[in-house]
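Re: weekly structure request thread

Next one in the queue (283 aa):
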Amino acid sequence: MIRNILKGAVIGVSNIIPGVSGGTMAVSMGIYDRLIHCITHLFKEFKKSILFLIPIGIGMVIALVAGSFSVEYLFENFPLPTNLAFIGLILGGLPAVGRKIRGNKVKIGHVAALILFFALVVGLAAMGEREGNAADLSFGFLNVLKLFGVGVIASATMVVPGVSGSMILLLIGYYNPVIAAVNDFIRSLTALDVDGILRGMGILVPFGIGVVVGSFAIAKLIEIVFEKFPMYAYWAITGLIVASPFAIVLMNVPVFTAVTVWTALAGVVTLALGFFAALKLGE
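Done, posted below.
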């Protein structure tokens, strides 16, 4: 129970960091296959799925709420060690994927899948260095539909390993507005500001419904791919995972070029801690 809450927290935090993939973290934590299965078989195996999903969900919610405040602080004050900690978490998931493909014959299609998805992640990161115009989140029928659609897109990319949902939000101009909306909603709740709570719900409810719908849809598609083409899927995931550290560097070039001896040493430590944490949680 506690371990799954911690795994959910890692996935939740990763989903709010541009360049870091929640799906990759799920692979690193060793729960990706089971997570997809429980989502797609929620009603067929309700009790079993709920018992697994609830602690994961609790961890994600705690991380999303706390992370919307604390992650910004860590990235502003300790950018290099924080980025390297997530790179360590990502790389710590490679052995788990390696065990899935070890002993199977390597085909040209496997290598092509690896290269294709590696290029996809790196290409998205290269395009995502700047955010477009901030989206309009004022309440209205059209904006509600847009928020639902953005939620579907974000959740779909969050579920796919190696693709950062927050990076996609950044590219389409919704990342900072949504994070700000979450922070404002939490402040309104603590202050019992009814107007602020209703305003926040007008943004977060349609976005949240879109996230749920998108998660179920993409999870079913991924399950079909794993059933019919498992080795291609694992090779593609390997490409996504290997590309993720490059994506983080591309999204944070100034951080990795302004290095001091102390930040480099701290970064090596956090990278190692992240790597071993992923190995331990993935057992």
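DSSP finds 14 helices and no strands in the chain. The mean pLDDT is 80.
Next request, please.
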